[in-house]
Amino acid sequence: MTTKNPPNPYDSNSINAIVGRAMALHRGGQLAEAERLYKSALALNPDHFEALHFFGLLEAQRGHNVEADEFMRRSLEINSGVAEAFTNHARVLNALKRSEQAIAACDKALSLNGRSVEAIVSRGIALYDLGRYHDALSTYDQALAIKPDYIVALRNRANALIVLRRSDEALAICDQILAVNSKDSTSLYCRANALFELSRFAESLLAYDRARAVAPEHAEACNVADAAQATCDWVRIARLTEELSARIEGGMPFSPFSLLGICDDPALHAKCAKNYIADRTKFLSRSGYARPVAPRDKIRIAYFSSDFREHATAYLIAGLIERHDRTRFDIIGISFGADDGGNMRRRLVDAFRQFHDVRTLSNPAAEALLNGLDIDIAVDLHGYTRGSRPELLCGRIAPIQVNYLGYPGTMGADFIDYVVADAVTVPFDQQPFYTEKIVHMPICYQVNDDRRVVADQTPTRRDAGLPEQGFVFCSFNNVYKITLPFFNVWMHLLNAVPGSVLWLLGDSPTLMSNLRREAQARKVDPTRLIFAGRAPLAEHLARHRLADLFLDTLPYNAHTTASDALWAGLPVLTCRGRAFAGRVAASLLHAVGLPELVTDSLAAYEAMALRLVTEQAQLAAIRAKLARNRLTYPLFDTDLFRRHIEAAYTRMWDIWQRGESPQSFSVEAIKPA
Question: In terms of CATH, what superfamily is 461-636?
């Protein structure tokens, strides 16, 4: 009996025909049928290079990048001689934010084809994601040297230029792209972002409108809110508020910091923060803290910020850094912002025992450095304000990680253990809106530096552009904090107090024009709105003496701005809101012994302002009380605050050493020294 040879399990020509048909369907957009054929081919030959690779591409098109990575890896194990395959894999790795691996894949592609502009640009994208912006820019330039009109390289170059504060160059690139394709949505949004960074806010608004008309669902569609706030375009903000709420509830990532000036809902703030951090860290590894506790006498605390320079955060915290008890605490500074070369930068560098500038380091490189520092408590002073890098803490570089000072709200991150607040700013009943455990400082959460200098010489009213006579209402808050309800109250006050003026901070022509137009619409002479330009801190503090009453805003109060006014001797009238950002001034006023200047409604706020204008004796008494209290009450007692926050850090450390989970607590008040 003769036996036949066992049948060949597959015929290569037949499989190639199946894969060819699948690729044709794939190119034609018939993804479901293409997938069926790719699977059929792989069932016959699991090691078919094209079937694996192009099925991986199909999965990437669908956003299934984890699956795409697996198929592409398998294909490259079979055939490592195709440059385009490494480039496609690099794109998937970039989508997964595996930037170091993406660079390696690009290098493989370029070793096979050194003129692959696709591989060069993918390498630039990986460098950009690592925070190596200058290197990314050089890489895009390499691609453009080969193919000067390569749109992908031009787009990415423009984005890198914006980050590098070269937005005028980015704008020119966007215009170049849009001259060829006026509906290129990425370039439309990039152009709007560049105009915003250049403070050309009116043009930025028009550019966002143009971009939103082309791509309303684009990830950056809601960036228009920042431009609207910067120009006090309240009609636009009102339209955007409902849209923003719906998008955030639907899971869209949006800047939590931008939301603080738009709404007063702590639940929406929390949802926004969770969406945002989940998106920023979705491909980053998370782990519990594993380093054994090294026996040492001091708790090692690292403060993280991009604002160790001439900035509000630095003005507040410099005295604390200098006065920390060096016998009990080892204090380290981690900077990821620009070095402005100023006096504050030098003062802070001198105050820290160690100071590390990680601005030019990628996140993995910075994390490697940080892990070598054996930090016990990492304090993020930045939160989600501009230039933030929460990714540095995502991998748990310290057993205790704290949200403090820079961002008034929850970070929504599972890797941040505590938020430092007080009973006024974040009552314990707001715990449902915080992923961090709430720690109450006994007086006020905000540190202040009692060594801040107020210039001896006060400018004249004429020097400041103010009238020689008349009541001066003042609000030196950033303009994005000015909202329609409060502006309406301010106009009521100007109408009710003849000869009074409103002194604001701002130098944007669009802003000034908008606010003066709004004033005129409320029957107020537009010239009664006076705008102050920027000035050195000591001089800025001194000019507060020219004002009679500081008017606060909501939903985002004055924070450092309120401290500035109080330190300079100017009373602050506030209205307490529902969320952290809208309760800070109330906390400051309680801590300086002026709770009578805290109101809880617009009506009470307006009535109190009028009372202080009409009853000059009461306002004079309040000013005298502030003059006494600023040096005797605890708000500006830096050393007392230092003792309180060190007690908070010590308790956090004790809880962790006992193996317990983070827990909310209140720090007991210590008597002033």
Answer: Glycogen Phosphorylase B; (3.40.50.2000)
